[in-house]
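Thread: Newbie trying to understand structure tokens

Hi all, I'm a second-year student working on a class project, and my supervisor (Dr. K.) asked me to get a predicted structure for one chain before our next meeting. I've only ever worked with sequences, so writing a 3D structure as a token string is new to me. If someone could post the tokens and maybe explain what I'm looking at, I'd be very grateful. Here's the chain:
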Amino acid sequence: MGLDSWNKVVVVDTSVIINFAHIERLDLLGDLPGYRFVIPDHVMEEIERERQKEALRDALSAGYISLVSITDPEEIGLYGGNTRIMGKGESACLAIAQKRKWFIASDEKRRFRKEAVKRLGEGKILTTPGILLMAIKAGILSVEEADRAKAILEGCRFRMTFKSFKDLLG
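---
Reply by user tm_fold:
Sure, no problem. This is what the structure looks like when written as tokens:
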């Protein structure tokens, strides 16, 4: 099935890949109904720790995530302009999402987030907590599992502003 046949294609930045590797749940990206997650080769290059590289390679082999490349001249131009204000992985993700009108998944804040909101709109940006919440709502992750993932991520210095995913379910 081609990428454009999915309801929502999401270009995933390094920060989200690392978070899902920390909790050993890159499989969730492949299981979320209606979504297809992709990474540009630039993100692949940013993963430095061997354990995370291995987890990403396994996720690619299993089809949970697909690899995409910047080939379109307009994407190449957007990428080049982006690298003046952000890293290569973020630049590639934003160029691809902007040109192809796809979603983006990133936990980056500040300038990157501001640029992503400006170019894509707030509703096109997913985060690690947002993806975990979608997995809960889809019935593929329990609140308890998500809270355990939250604790692991907080041990890796990734803070979430809520106490439990149960609080987000209203």
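A couple of things are worth pointing out once you decode it. The CA atoms of residues 19 and 153 lie 7 Å apart. The longest strand covers residues 35-40. Feel free to ask follow-ups in this thread.
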